[in-house]
Amino acid sequence: MNTNVEIAGVTLKNPVMTASGTFGSGVEYAEFVDLNRLGAVVTKGVASEPWAGNPTPRISETYGGMLNAVGLQNPGIDKFVERDIPFLAKYDTKIVVNVCGRTVEDYCEVVARLADQPVDLLEINISCPNVKEGGIAFGQNPKSVEAVTKEVKKCAKQPIIMKLSPNVTDITEMAKAAEAGGADALSLINTLTGMKIDIHKRTFALANKTGGLSGPAIHPVAVRMVYQTAHAVQVPVIGMGGIVTPEDAIEMILAGATAISVGTANFHNPGVTVEIADGIREYMEHNGVTDIRALIGAVQE
Question: Which one is the CATH code of 5-57+72-193+213-294: 3.20.20.70, 3.30.230.10, 3.30.110.70, 3.90.700.10?
Answer without folding.
Answer: 3.20.20.70
